[in-house]
Amino acid sequence: MTTTEPRIRSGNEWLSAAKEVAAELAVNAAERDRKNETPYAEVRLLKDSGLVTLLGPVEHGGGGQSWETAYRVIREVARGDGSIGQLLGYHYLWAWAARLVATDDQIAAVEELYTRNDFFFGGAVNPRDSDLKIAEDGDEIVYNGHKSFSTGSKVSDLTVLEGVLEGTEDHIFAIVPSGQDGIVFHDDWDNIGQRLTESGSVTITDVRVPWASAAGYVDKKFHPLTYNTLNVPAIQLVFANFYLGIAQGALETALAYTREHTRAWPYGGDNKPSAGEEWYILDGYGDLQSKLWAAEALVDKAGTAISAVLHAPREELTPEARGEVAVLIAAAKQRVIDTGLEIGTKIFELTGARASATKYGLDRFWRNLRTHSLHDPVAYKRREVGAYALLNELPEPTWYT
Question: Does the predicted TM-score (pTM) go above 0.85?
């Protein structure tokens, strides 16, 4: 579907749209998790709601919104389905990839292309694998190789590739159509959580890209900016937001179950007529809700901070400002992981034995958060914060910081 009509909404209206999507996803989230089918319908829902083009330019039919709003939208969608929240968050990051590293002309072309056509992004950029190999062939570069993970794969319209030009140490990003013979998705994603993210492996064979589309390259040369390194803090906060959404969805679902089904314990000597009057249940939910509110406040603080630099002129970002944002995001990420995993476990103590029935799917929240939070060791995030607090050291840009 091609669109040029601006989707002009306030930030609150975009959040309302995200809540509507989340509510629809939540209805059968447990069932869809069990089936583990490619989420074509779910991505169509994201497109129809306009959320896919939330960051796109208004003149091409996009929302023209800030990253601060985008992060909250990711979180809301993840409340309904953690997998779809992850897909949307990765899409936003890859849709912004051109702004991170490309030239002004390349940015304009990519943003018009995806916004007008409601295109959805995936990415084959896993730093722990060997880089894709890039060969130069006249006015084109040619990608070849294999990646273990390619989130979004079969549901994407566009795929972000990254590799190293042979004979150099030059990394080159490019955005290519997903539906082509040279890109083969292997349908081998079958993990315990985030099951609908289409994050399986991919083989790239002779995918050709004009040198003119090599992101950020002018006359085959790249001119780096500190802004280029914001891709990692930006996606780390994507993680924190869909983790937060998963944790919120877990607590929300557990509270609803307790209201409707949990029975008071009749053998404690201080018998109550309803579960809502049980002191240990009230104590437990009070503890979890307080911790979740605290994590949310820290995630929101980080979102405000990085949004400000993502939308500022690229040339103005300093390494120091980048480092301050990165360490704040590291703190937010570790806090929401710890809180979310605790919620995913303790809700069973508060809902009761019958809540463990498969039909309720309460286990999916822990499985989803546990699976993706292993993306990179959270201990290193704690170390980054510790080095900042004790030694006043800022994180150095890497593929994971």
Answer: yes
